[in-house]
Amino acid sequence: MADKSNFEFLKEHDPVFFQLAFAAEQSFSADPNTTLIKLRQLGEAFAQDMAARCGIEFEEKTSQADLLFKLNREIRLDPNIRDLFHTLRIEGNRATHQFRAQHKEALDGLRLARTLAIWFHQSFGRLGAAFKPGLFVAPTDPSQPLRELTTQIEQLKVRLLDANEHVENNQQLTPQTRQFQNPSPMPYRIT
Questions:
Q1: How far apart, in whole angstroms, are the C-alpha atoms of residue 185 and residue 66?
Q2: Does residue 56 form part of some domain?
Q3: What is the DSSP code string of the chain?
């Protein structure tokens, strides 16, 4: 992810958009919590830019939720786009106040933010709807190998339990098997 960003197309707009998106990507590996916070800020920057373009008044103390309400009331945001804004806001708040996030959550946030950024770019960029973003390139999730190892360990535990059960069953059968293999001599009766 060091060379190219999933948000390169935002360079055409206010530099803060790309800076926030790129910072979110760059912090993913070391600090997924920061990724979600930066993505929340990106959503706020988009909303503020849209409000300014549409002549919707807001102040520095206007919350993101209030600004999104105003935007929706004035320009009728598509419900999916509105949900993207709210999801980034909620997940960013959670990351801010709970101080921890998992890589999976941050990766989901990057995907959602990119979808919102593409919509923003197609709505306000030079190419408009003709813009083709290409595929999302997921950053390497450093927790993925750990999750894979955990899965392998669980599978091995199940196999070990099965093997132990098999050994126990064999041990119970061994004395009985010996009786059949070496039957005790029958006493001879001489008559």
A1: 95
A2: yes
A3: --S--TTGGGGGS-HHHHHHHHHHHHHTTT-HHHHHHHHHHHHHHHHHHHHHHTT----TT--HHHHHHHHHHHH---HHHHHHHHHHHHHHHHHHHH----HHHHHHHHHHHHHHHHHHHHHHSSSGGG-------PPP-TTHHHHHHHHHHHHHHHHHHHHHHHHHHHHHHHHHHHHHHSPPPPPP---
Residue type at 129? A
Q: In one letter, which amino acid is 1? A: M
Whether residues 158 and 125 share a domain: the answer is no
Residue type at position 56: I
What tens digit of pLDDT does each residue of 119-176 get? 999 999 999 999 999 999 998 877 677 777 778 888 888 888 888 888 877 777 666 6
Say which residue the tokens 């958009």 belong to: 17
Please compute the mean of the pLDDT values over residues 81-88 and round it to a whole number.
Answer: 97
- Residue 3 within any structural domain of the chain: no
Burial class (CB in 10 A: 0-12, 13-18, 19+), 125: middle
List the domain range (segments joined by +) for residue 61. 8-142
Counted domains in the chain: 2
Residue 188 inside a domain? The answer is: no
